[in-house]
Description:
2 copies of one chain form a homodimer. Chain A is α/β, with parallel strands linked by helices. Chain A folds into 2 domains: 6-107, CATH 3.30.1330.30; 114-274, SPOUT methyltransferase, trefoil knot domain (Alpha/beta knot, 3-Layer(aba) Sandwich), CATH 3.40.1280.10. Chain A is 30% helix and 20% strand. The first copy, chain A, has helices at residues 42-50, 70-73, 87-94, 114-119, 137-149, 167-172, 176-179, 188-197, 236-241, 258-274; strands at 6-9, 36-40, 55-62, 81-85, 102-107, 128-131, 154-157, 182-184, 201-205, 212-213, 223-227, 243-246. In chain A, strand 3 (55-62), helix 2 (70-73) and strand 4 (81-85) form a beta-alpha-beta unit. In chain A, helix 5 (137-149) runs parallel beside helix 10. The longest helix of chain A is centred in the C-terminal third of the chain and has 17 residues, at 258-274. The termini of chain A are far apart. The model of chain A has no long low-confidence stretch (mean pLDDT 92). The A-B interface holds A 142, 145-146, 148-151, 174, 176, 213-216, 247-250, 252-257, 259-260, 263-264, 267-268, 270-271, 274-275 and B 142, 145-146, 148-151, 174, 176, 213-216, 247-250, 252-257, 259-260, 263-264, 267-268, 270-271, 274-275. Chains A, B: This is RNA methyltransferase. Chains A, B: One of its GO terms (molecular function) is RNA binding.
Amino acid sequence: MGSLMHLIPVTDPADPRLAAYTSIREKDLTSGHGGRFIVEGKVTLETLLTRSRFAVESLFLAESRLAPLADLLAKVPADVPVYTAPQDIMDQVAGFPMHRGVLACGLKGDIPLPGEFISEDKPRSGPLLLLSDISNHDNTGACFRNAAAFGAGGLLLDERCCDPLYRKAIRVSSGASLFLPYAHGGTGLDMVNAVLNAGYTVWAMTPRAEAQPMQSLPVPDKLAILLGAEGPGLPDALIAAAEPVRIPMSAGFDSINVATAGAIALAHVFGEKQG
Amino acid sequence: MGSLMHLIPVTDPADPRLAAYTSIREKDLTSGHGGRFIVEGKVTLETLLTRSRFAVESLFLAESRLAPLADLLAKVPADVPVYTAPQDIMDQVAGFPMHRGVLACGLKGDIPLPGEFISEDKPRSGPLLLLSDISNHDNTGACFRNAAAFGAGGLLLDERCCDPLYRKAIRVSSGASLFLPYAHGGTGLDMVNAVLNAGYTVWAMTPRAEAQPMQSLPVPDKLAILLGAEGPGLPDALIAAAEPVRIPMSAGFDSINVATAGAIALAHVFGEKQG
């Protein structure tokens, strides 16, 4: 164990220094004051410590996890407190059994709006993934995971999307929401227009019959892939602003999960660019 | 409401005729005696009544759902009892709030083994999806949903896979596990060998570098796509028996969900066959 690590044993589940970790199942930390988020488990902690865009505020570990995680903990900055407690105290703080025994709290900082993100003078390789009205944490997390797997340059989320830094979204993203650049806020149409104005082609993914089959289209150099809510799909106004594109599917059952649709489009584009 | 429907009001949550519906959250009906499964929600009930492979044993509906579902309920066979109860009685039976107010119980019957399935003298269009050691209900359900969306001819599951007729697997499948033909049981190697012996090419999906990129391969007429457990991936013996195939991914993050990997492979094959 590095001697620099700032280890703080805690014995009282009501210790105010653990406030960020209390009752984390129900709590919505990210939208409250302070803009904190919770990371759980070893893999995501490793992402937070090694390739995250965000600052780490503290760690909270079950005592039994200190030895097995020694190598990883050597990467914790010396000024970041590492609270430790017996498993039962940790469970009481979290409000449910925290079997993994690994929690950390990050600081969200400022997340740009899609228009700000696009106008940044940064070269971005890979397509952008645009999400409109994706309010399910699993779907948001899966979209980030898939975007990372297929080399997307970033994600834009409109105001109707849930926060990709929700605990469950981070977990489902396999940590991708901690390192992939993203923007969040404003209307779907503002988002699409910002991307169009920056010279992107926007593929509005929709099962509608009048949409072009994805495989029939050349893949533009600057491509944005737009996904909408799973039930209703993208609203007409967003489809009309973009290029309607469909994934060919079986006639009797044209229903796939929205994150899966995004993965199929991203994988197709990635494969075309490699080929 | 069709006058033929066999409507049975129930007022006692302990009524033995509702035994199949008690405490359904925890219960594993499918592997027990009797081989029943539970369907919940309108969309899945419609699948059960209109395109399922399975017999319906009974329905259990909140009273308030009778009128809105009248058209669908007209399709219930006259000899199938339809139990109805006030919402609070239904909640007590199910063991948790059954907001949708729609449950049905189906009979599983005999599910063939993969070897039996393959030796059936039936023409099957579309690729087969082979699952080895997929024990997560969400992943199993998603695999069925994706298989239906991309015209798979059926699914083979080895003995280490969970039952696709678990309540949650059916729901996540959007009902596809009720109508897609499938087989379940035996070892992964028996499953792969049965398919190879029947003249199929088996693509073992793996991120390993030595695997061929999917897009570089011709799509065989008789194709089986083999997926393994998400964490460890396919065991060496199954990869060695088949053709290792990979989905090209970003070098720094080659991790996608197993059902998503299956969807990408199925969508690619479907697109090639359409094109």
